[in-house]
Every structure is written in structure tokens, then in C-alpha cells.
Amino acid sequence: MSAMIALLLVFSALVGCTGETLTNVKNALPDPPPETVAFSVEMEEYQETVRDEDGAVLAECAYELPVMRALTEDGAVLETASTEAQERALAKAEAFNARFAPWKTNPKTLAESAREDRAFRNESGLEPVAYTDDLWCTVYRTETLVSVSGTYSTYTGGAHPNHILMSWNFDLEAGEFFEPEILDEGGDLRDFVRVALVRQVREPEGEPGAKPEDLYWEDYEDILADWPSYAVSFDEEGMTVGFSPYELACYAAGPQVFRLTYDQLRPHLGQHGKALLGLEEAG
User: Fold this and answer.
1) Residues 178, 275: Cα–Cα separation, whole Å
2) Which of 16, 108, 190, 231 lies at a CB distance of 3.0 to 4.6 Å from 165, suitable for a disulfide?
3) What residues contact 241, with CB distance under 8 A and at least 6 apart?
4) Could you report the per-residue pLDDT of 19-49, keeping only the tens digit for each?
């Protein structure tokens, strides 16, 4: 009987050791690397000419539209998702592209207005004109940010085309567009940029003695204070704030564009803003 008990104890010990060994081996296995999904952003041209029933051109439209695509680890375009990471990546690309897709409906809308204008001009003995609509874009992107800067030009028969500066900034981590106010998380970025813009207006480079009222509207300080509502974009060197003709000065003055470097901005950014712009402190 004693021998039987001894055998049972030995067997139990062996089983325990085996289980512990298997558990340790399992725990020692490295975790699989997280799945990474890359993105590409490329410019695609979209052109369309809309004609009236008699063949006359009503509207001519040409757009450069940024298109985002999710990519697999081998660089292929991701079409369908098989993992949660891929689902999130496709959702981010869809959210980005949805902002620019409506541009493709502009030619039809513009042509309807041009058709009505053409009928009026014909009745009034005026020369008909073809409407035009154009958008040119540039893209700056990092692993966390896509910043699109655009110039929109449209002509609907006035004295000259209208030119409008535009911008779109996209957080790749969150998968959504953002406004520049979020970069400081409630800090002083807005006021700092306002002061910097006012200084650039009052002390323009290469124009000593120039007076703001010689070029800008009288309420230019109030306009500059609302800078986040205008065209704000980013590139390798810093942030650009752009005002279209008529927004800060007359049409003849052209667009007014101001720049601030990342060194200027860094002390006024929150942690999320620094991460989004790739400006985390070293160390």
C-alpha cells in the first residue's frame, strides 16, 4: 500500500512539472506583431464638359482630387477586409474620400446655372459664356497626418474668375478631419497665431514703413483673429494660413498667405497636437 501511495505521489509530481513546463513555454512565445495597414494618397484628375442641346458648351470642369487607398503589407490595394485592422483602415479611407467625392457632381449643377444664364443672355442680346470650374491640390502627408491645400477657381460670367484658397486636414489615427483648434487642447495656440499674423501684417518683410490700411480691410485684426476658419494647411516646414481675395484685402491684392514654422508653433501645441504633427519631444 505504501508503495502504491509513493507511486501516485511521483506521478502527480511529474504531471505538475509537465504542466508547468508547457505553461512556461506557451508564455514564452512572443506575441504576434500587430497588423499594420499603410495608406497611399494620390491625385486623380476628373474632367467633364457639359453641353447644351445644340452642342454649345455650358460648363467645363477640371478637378485634381486626392484619393486615399488602404494598402496591404505587400503594397497591394486593399479591396475587402478580413481583419478588424483592415476594416478600420477601409473606414478611414472611405471617410477621407467621401469629403472629395461630391466635387464630381459640380459639373451638372454648374451646367444648370449656365443654361439659365445662357437663355437670359440670348433674350437680352448678350454674348453667352461658358462657365468654368477648376480645383488644383497639393498633398502633404506623414504617418499620422494628411494635409490637403487647394486653389479653387470658378468663372460664371463676371468681370473675372473667383479664386478661393481651401484646405482639409485629416487625422490618420482617428480617421477623421480636424480643425486646427484641437492642436493645443484648450491652450493658447489660437491667440499666439493671431498675434503672429498681426505682426506679419504690420511688419511685412521687405516693405519697411508699409501701413496695414494701405492694403488690408480696416477690420483686418478681427479677420485675423478668426484664422482657423480660413485655409489652414501644413507641410514640411510648418503651418500656412491663407486668405482668399476679398477676405482680407481687395481682389487686386490677390490671396494673402502667412507662414509659421514648427519651431514657432511647438511651445503652443498640446501633446496630441505634437503627436499629430510629428513633433514629439525627443527623449
Assistant:
1) 14
2) 231
3) 193, 197, 227, 230, 231, 232, 257, 258, 259, 260
4) 444 445 445 556 555 667 799 999 999 999 9
HSE, CB side, 13 Å, CA atoms: give it for residue 201.
Answer: 27
SS3 73: coil
The CA distances from residue 223 to 122, 162, 204, 208, 279, in Å, are 41, 20, 17, 23, 28
CA distance 38 to 77: 10
Find out whether 193 and 262 touch, Cβ atoms under 8 Å: no
Grid cell in block for residue 212: 496695414
- 71-83 residue pLDDT tens: 988 889 999 999 9
Cα torsion 17, 20, 21, 23 to 10°: value is: 160
d(CA 149, CA 226): 19
Average of per-residue pLDDT across 234-239: 97
> Alpha carbon 102 to chain centroid distance?
16
Helix residue spans in 59-186 (DSSP H): 84-100, 106-124
Report d(CA 243, CA 223) in Å as an integer.
Answer: 10
Asked if 148 and 167 touch (Cβ cutoff 8 Å), the reply is: yes
**212, 218, 221, 227: CA torsion to nearest 10:** -100
pTM, two decimals, is 0.84
> How many other C-beta atoms can be found within 10 angstroms of the C-beta atom of residue 186?
9
